[in-house]
Amino acid sequence: MAPYIDDKAVVNGTADDVSSGVQNLKLKNAEPVQVDKGPSYPYYYPYFDINEKFPPTELFEHTDPGLRADPSKPNLLANATTRVLNPYIGTEVLGVQVSQLSKEGLDELALLAAERKLVVFRDQDFKDLSPERQIAIAEHFGPIQRHPTSGNVKSFPEFHVVYRDGQNDRRLPRTQNGLESLTQVGWHSDVSYEKQPPGTTFFWILDQPKLGGDTQFASQVEAYKRFSPAFKKRLEGLTAVHSAVPQANYSRERGGPVRREPVETEHPLVRVHPVTGEKALYVNKGFTKYIVGYKQEESDNLLNFLFDHIAKGTDFHIRANYEPGTLVIWDNRLTVHSATPDFDASQERRHAVRLTPQAEVPVAAEV
């Protein structure tokens, strides 16, 4: 969940409290003053309106565009250079402007994201890419989820804005039982509490620290594949409750918006992807609260084992490194991810926007 950020200007001026004598001292040898000119794309500065309200999300029919795709992907990769980042997750693509793709190319992108779980596009030209065009691209994959608590873009509630800088760095250490946590790493699949959680997701990098501020991703497909046949059978058929309540409470406690009342939804522990047919573990520490039909201790022990397995599976993890002009696309049905806040926000800015199209109601793996 993005931190709450006040809707105010983001320009850091230099302090004007130095005497003229000191200002002139060794002027020729002085370092140039670094003035923060604000975000590169101020239009996407996070906007909060605590009076903004959204209706409950409604169920809809969904057909994944990857089902229409040509498996050879001629409209996507004919002129591209690709590099596999990890055997189980992640491909980098050069030489493609996603904003210029045809409908057939977008269908092939859905297939590639499902096959590789995560796709990193470099050198995207955002200067002439309007919010309307970004939204139109994302809507090819499904209706866009409007986040109930995070900052969005004024007049465009489809955007989820990620923003940190020297004036807006309110990330609090993650806590459990009121105790401070050692780390801010938090594995999750975006808004998995929705009745129809997201599928193919778009994350546009606008400003990025020179070092750090990346995202870690893990393949839930490979996490499931590692289990023994007997354990897989035990997981299949189980369901768990995913809850939006803690997220809503966190925002309320800090004076932030709750645009839609929080929901709790039951999803299978193991789901099947509609295009690839792959089975994927579908739990995450951010939103999965308990296993239906289990007693508290049973549920806690199994979920904690699964969370631990995901967090420690570094051979099916990848750290996606970013730079301005990067577009990251992943399949939320098959992955979990965590922000990596390993940069000095007092000195650098991280700014990105996410568009989160919803997909099908999760389909359980057959027992």
TrEMBL record:
The entry's keywords: Dioxygenase, Iron, Metal-binding, Oxidoreductase
The keyword Iron is annotated on this UniProt entry: yes
GO molecular function terms noted in the UniProt entry: 2-oxoglutarate-dependent dioxygenase activity; metal ion binding
Pfam families: TauD
Gene3D superfamilies registered for this protein in UniProt: Clavaminate synthase-like
All residue ranges annotated as the TauD/TfdA-like domain in the record: 83-356
GO cellular component: cytoplasm
InterPro entries: AtsK-like, TauD-like_sf, TauD/TfdA-like
Family: Belongs to the TfdA dioxygenase family.
Protein name: TauD/TfdA-like domain-containing protein
Organism: Saitozyma podzolica
